[in-house]
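Quick one: co-fold with zinc ion.
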Amino acid sequence: MPELPEVQTIINGLRQTVMSKTISSIMEKRQGTLIFGEDINICEFGKIESIERRGKYIIIKTSKDLKLVIHLRMTGKLIYEEDINNSSAYSRAEIIFSDKTKLIFDDVRTFGKIQILMINEKIKSIEKLGVEPLSNKFDVKYLENKLKKRKAPIKNSLLDQTVIAGLGNIYVAEILFRAKVNPVIPANRIGIVKLKNIVSETKSVLMEAIKYNGTTISDYRSVENKTGEFQNFLKVYGKKTCECGAEIMKIKQAGRSTYFCEKCQR
Ligand SMILES: [Zn+2]
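Sure, here it is.
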Protein backbone atom coordinates (compact mmCIF):
# COMPACT_ATOMS: atom_id res chain seq x y z
CA MET A 1 0.00 0.00 0.00
CA PRO A 2 1.40 3.43 -0.86
CA GLU A 3 2.40 5.32 2.28
CA LEU A 4 3.39 8.96 2.77
CA PRO A 5 6.66 8.87 0.73
CA GLU A 6 4.99 7.12 -2.22
CA VAL A 7 2.00 9.49 -2.19
CA GLN A 8 4.36 12.49 -1.96
CA THR A 9 6.38 11.14 -4.91
CA ILE A 10 3.17 10.78 -6.92
CA ILE A 11 2.21 14.36 -6.03
CA ASN A 12 5.63 15.64 -7.10
CA GLY A 13 5.10 13.82 -10.41
CA LEU A 14 1.59 15.22 -10.85
CA ARG A 15 2.87 18.75 -10.26
CA GLN A 16 5.36 18.26 -13.10
CA THR A 17 2.91 16.69 -15.54
CA VAL A 18 -0.70 17.87 -15.04
CA MET A 19 -0.49 21.12 -13.05
CA SER A 20 -2.42 23.95 -14.80
CA LYS A 21 -4.05 21.57 -17.28
CA THR A 22 -7.76 21.94 -17.96
CA ILE A 23 -9.87 18.85 -17.22
CA SER A 24 -12.33 18.30 -20.06
CA SER A 25 -13.94 15.14 -18.67
CA ILE A 26 -13.60 12.33 -16.16
CA MET A 27 -14.56 8.88 -17.41
CA GLU A 28 -15.46 6.05 -15.09
CA LYS A 29 -14.20 2.72 -16.40
CA ARG A 30 -15.40 0.64 -13.48
CA GLN A 31 -18.57 1.47 -11.60
CA GLY A 32 -18.03 2.65 -8.04
CA THR A 33 -14.63 4.24 -8.63
CA LEU A 34 -15.98 7.81 -8.73
CA ILE A 35 -17.87 9.11 -5.70
CA PHE A 36 -19.68 12.45 -6.00
CA GLY A 37 -20.17 14.89 -3.11
CA GLU A 38 -23.58 15.78 -1.70
CA ASP A 39 -23.94 19.24 -3.20
CA ILE A 40 -21.90 18.67 -6.33
CA ASN A 41 -22.75 20.84 -9.31
CA ILE A 42 -20.43 20.42 -12.28
CA CYS A 43 -20.72 22.63 -15.36
CA GLU A 44 -17.03 22.58 -16.11
CA PHE A 45 -14.20 20.92 -14.20
CA GLY A 46 -11.83 23.83 -14.74
CA LYS A 47 -8.08 24.08 -14.59
CA ILE A 48 -5.88 22.34 -11.98
CA GLU A 49 -4.69 25.01 -9.55
CA SER A 50 -3.18 23.01 -6.70
CA ILE A 51 -2.10 19.45 -5.88
CA GLU A 52 -1.59 18.73 -2.19
CA ARG A 53 -1.16 15.77 0.15
CA ARG A 54 -2.85 15.15 3.51
CA GLY A 55 -1.84 11.83 5.06
CA LYS A 56 -2.21 9.32 2.22
CA TYR A 57 -4.79 11.44 0.37
CA ILE A 58 -4.10 13.35 -2.86
CA ILE A 59 -6.17 16.55 -3.09
CA ILE A 60 -6.43 18.27 -6.49
CA LYS A 61 -8.25 21.64 -6.59
CA THR A 62 -9.52 23.34 -9.72
CA SER A 63 -10.44 26.84 -10.87
CA LYS A 64 -14.16 25.90 -10.86
CA ASP A 65 -14.22 25.38 -7.06
CA LEU A 66 -14.07 21.61 -7.34
CA LYS A 67 -11.71 19.17 -5.73
CA LEU A 68 -10.73 15.62 -6.53
CA VAL A 69 -9.76 13.62 -3.46
CA ILE A 70 -7.91 10.44 -4.38
CA HIS A 71 -7.01 7.55 -2.09
CA LEU A 72 -4.95 4.79 -3.71
CA ARG A 73 -5.62 2.16 -1.00
CA MET A 74 -3.87 -1.17 -1.78
CA THR A 75 -2.84 -1.04 -5.42
CA GLY A 76 -4.00 2.28 -6.92
CA LYS A 77 -1.70 4.07 -9.36
CA LEU A 78 -1.94 7.32 -11.30
CA ILE A 79 -0.30 7.06 -14.70
CA TYR A 80 0.25 10.10 -16.88
CA GLU A 81 -0.33 9.28 -20.55
CA GLU A 82 0.54 11.66 -23.38
CA ASP A 83 -1.38 9.64 -25.95
CA ILE A 84 -5.12 9.77 -25.31
CA ASN A 85 -5.57 6.44 -27.16
CA ASN A 86 -3.39 4.50 -24.71
CA SER A 87 -4.91 2.83 -21.67
CA SER A 88 -3.77 0.33 -19.05
CA ALA A 89 -4.83 -3.16 -17.97
CA TYR A 90 -6.63 -2.08 -14.80
CA SER A 91 -7.86 1.39 -15.73
CA ARG A 92 -10.76 2.27 -13.38
CA ALA A 93 -11.17 5.94 -14.28
CA GLU A 94 -9.50 8.42 -16.64
CA ILE A 95 -9.11 12.17 -16.25
CA ILE A 96 -9.01 13.66 -19.73
CA PHE A 97 -7.32 17.01 -20.35
CA SER A 98 -8.14 19.58 -23.02
CA ASP A 99 -4.71 19.06 -24.66
CA LYS A 100 -5.59 15.37 -25.36
CA THR A 101 -3.39 13.96 -22.61
CA LYS A 102 -4.80 12.01 -19.67
CA LEU A 103 -4.27 10.67 -16.20
CA ILE A 104 -5.21 7.02 -15.75
CA PHE A 105 -6.34 5.73 -12.36
CA ASP A 106 -5.20 2.11 -12.54
CA ASP A 107 -6.13 -0.20 -9.65
CA VAL A 108 -5.86 -4.01 -9.71
CA ARG A 109 -7.64 -4.59 -6.38
CA THR A 110 -10.28 -1.83 -6.92
CA PHE A 111 -10.27 -0.47 -3.34
CA GLY A 112 -9.06 2.96 -4.48
CA LYS A 113 -11.53 5.79 -5.02
CA ILE A 114 -11.75 9.27 -6.55
CA GLN A 115 -14.13 11.59 -4.72
CA ILE A 116 -15.37 14.62 -6.66
CA LEU A 117 -16.56 17.39 -4.34
CA MET A 118 -17.20 21.10 -4.11
CA ILE A 119 -14.07 22.76 -2.72
CA ASN A 120 -15.57 23.46 0.75
CA GLU A 121 -17.15 20.06 1.36
CA LYS A 122 -15.43 18.29 4.25
CA ILE A 123 -14.45 14.63 4.37
CA LYS A 124 -14.77 13.06 7.83
CA SER A 125 -11.81 10.72 7.48
CA ILE A 126 -9.57 13.66 6.53
CA GLU A 127 -10.89 15.85 9.38
CA LYS A 128 -9.94 13.11 11.86
CA LEU A 129 -6.35 12.70 10.63
CA GLY A 130 -3.53 13.24 13.10
CA VAL A 131 -0.52 15.46 12.61
CA GLU A 132 1.64 15.52 9.47
CA PRO A 133 4.88 13.84 10.59
CA LEU A 134 7.12 16.15 8.54
CA SER A 135 5.55 19.30 10.03
CA ASN A 136 6.88 21.14 13.08
CA LYS A 137 3.70 20.21 14.96
CA PHE A 138 4.97 16.64 15.16
CA ASP A 139 7.28 16.75 18.16
CA VAL A 140 7.90 14.76 21.33
CA LYS A 141 5.23 16.69 23.28
CA TYR A 142 2.58 15.88 20.68
CA LEU A 143 3.54 12.20 20.64
CA GLU A 144 3.73 11.89 24.43
CA ASN A 145 0.28 13.45 24.74
CA LYS A 146 -1.26 11.23 22.05
CA LEU A 147 0.20 8.01 23.48
CA LYS A 148 -0.17 8.53 27.23
CA LYS A 149 -3.52 6.71 27.43
CA ARG A 150 -2.86 4.08 24.78
CA LYS A 151 -2.20 0.58 26.04
CA ALA A 152 -2.06 -0.89 22.54
CA PRO A 153 1.40 -1.81 21.20
CA ILE A 154 3.44 1.12 19.90
CA LYS A 155 3.36 -0.35 16.39
CA ASN A 156 -0.44 -0.26 16.21
CA SER A 157 -0.50 3.27 17.63
CA LEU A 158 1.90 4.58 14.98
CA LEU A 159 -0.24 2.98 12.25
CA ASP A 160 -3.33 4.78 13.60
CA GLN A 161 -3.97 7.62 11.13
CA THR A 162 -5.60 9.74 13.87
CA VAL A 163 -2.25 9.76 15.71
CA ILE A 164 0.11 10.38 12.79
CA ALA A 165 -1.13 10.78 9.19
CA GLY A 166 0.56 8.83 6.42
CA LEU A 167 2.51 6.02 8.07
CA GLY A 168 1.96 2.39 7.07
CA ASN A 169 3.42 -1.02 7.75
CA ILE A 170 6.77 -0.63 5.99
CA TYR A 171 7.81 2.72 7.42
CA VAL A 172 6.64 1.97 10.97
CA ALA A 173 8.86 -1.15 10.93
CA GLU A 174 11.86 0.89 9.79
CA ILE A 175 11.18 3.75 12.22
CA LEU A 176 10.95 1.42 15.23
CA PHE A 177 14.12 -0.38 14.17
CA ARG A 178 16.10 2.85 13.90
CA ALA A 179 14.59 4.17 17.15
CA LYS A 180 15.54 0.84 18.84
CA VAL A 181 12.00 0.31 20.12
CA ASN A 182 10.37 -3.12 20.36
CA PRO A 183 7.06 -2.95 18.44
CA VAL A 184 5.08 -4.94 21.04
CA ILE A 185 5.69 -2.53 23.96
CA PRO A 186 2.48 -0.71 25.03
CA ALA A 187 2.56 2.84 23.66
CA ASN A 188 2.00 4.47 27.07
CA ARG A 189 5.06 2.74 28.54
CA ILE A 190 7.65 4.23 26.23
CA GLY A 191 10.00 6.66 27.96
CA ILE A 192 10.84 10.16 26.80
CA VAL A 193 14.23 9.25 25.29
CA LYS A 194 12.69 6.59 23.07
CA LEU A 195 9.83 8.90 22.14
CA LYS A 196 12.39 11.46 21.00
CA ASN A 197 14.07 8.75 18.94
CA ILE A 198 10.73 7.84 17.34
CA VAL A 199 10.04 11.46 16.38
CA SER A 200 13.46 12.08 14.86
CA GLU A 201 13.64 8.70 13.09
CA THR A 202 10.14 9.18 11.67
CA LYS A 203 11.24 12.41 10.05
CA SER A 204 14.54 11.03 8.76
CA VAL A 205 13.12 7.75 7.40
CA LEU A 206 10.33 9.62 5.55
CA MET A 207 12.70 12.26 4.15
CA GLU A 208 15.12 9.60 2.90
CA ALA A 209 12.29 7.58 1.36
CA ILE A 210 10.96 10.66 -0.47
CA LYS A 211 14.49 11.35 -1.73
CA TYR A 212 14.54 7.83 -3.23
CA ASN A 213 11.00 8.19 -4.67
CA GLY A 214 9.43 5.74 -2.22
CA THR A 215 9.58 1.97 -1.77
CA THR A 216 8.50 -0.44 -4.48
CA ILE A 217 7.74 -3.88 -3.06
CA SER A 218 5.08 -4.86 -5.60
CA ASP A 219 2.61 -2.47 -7.24
CA TYR A 220 3.69 1.04 -6.46
CA ARG A 221 4.84 3.20 -9.41
CA SER A 222 5.35 6.93 -9.80
CA VAL A 223 3.27 9.01 -12.24
CA GLU A 224 5.94 8.37 -14.87
CA ASN A 225 5.49 4.62 -14.20
CA LYS A 226 8.90 4.31 -12.48
CA THR A 227 9.67 2.25 -9.38
CA GLY A 228 10.95 3.73 -6.11
CA GLU A 229 14.41 2.88 -4.74
CA PHE A 230 14.02 2.95 -0.95
CA GLN A 231 13.49 -0.84 -0.85
CA ASN A 232 17.28 -1.01 -1.21
CA PHE A 233 17.70 0.79 2.13
CA LEU A 234 15.23 -1.16 4.27
CA LYS A 235 16.78 -2.66 7.41
CA VAL A 236 14.03 -4.93 8.78
CA TYR A 237 10.88 -4.93 6.65
CA GLY A 238 10.80 -8.21 4.68
CA LYS A 239 14.30 -9.13 5.91
CA LYS A 240 15.56 -12.41 7.41
CA THR A 241 18.80 -11.34 9.11
CA CYS A 242 19.59 -8.13 10.98
CA GLU A 243 22.82 -6.21 10.39
CA CYS A 244 23.79 -7.30 13.96
CA GLY A 245 23.68 -10.92 12.77
CA ALA A 246 20.53 -11.93 14.69
CA GLU A 247 17.49 -13.38 13.00
CA ILE A 248 14.71 -10.88 12.19
CA MET A 249 11.47 -11.84 13.94
CA LYS A 250 8.23 -11.87 11.98
CA ILE A 251 5.00 -11.75 13.99
CA LYS A 252 1.40 -10.66 13.40
CA GLN A 253 -0.03 -7.54 15.02
CA ALA A 254 -3.61 -6.51 14.25
CA GLY A 255 -3.52 -8.83 11.23
CA ARG A 256 -0.41 -7.23 9.72
CA SER A 257 3.15 -8.59 9.59
CA THR A 258 5.64 -6.99 11.96
CA TYR A 259 9.37 -7.36 11.39
CA PHE A 260 11.87 -6.56 14.14
CA CYS A 261 15.17 -7.53 15.77
CA GLU A 262 14.80 -8.61 19.39
CA LYS A 263 18.46 -7.86 20.05
CA CYS A 264 18.50 -4.31 18.62
CA GLN A 265 14.97 -3.30 19.62
CA ARG A 266 14.30 -3.50 23.35
ZN1 LIG B 1 19.74 -6.60 15.27
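If it helps, The chain has two domains: 4-127, 140-260.
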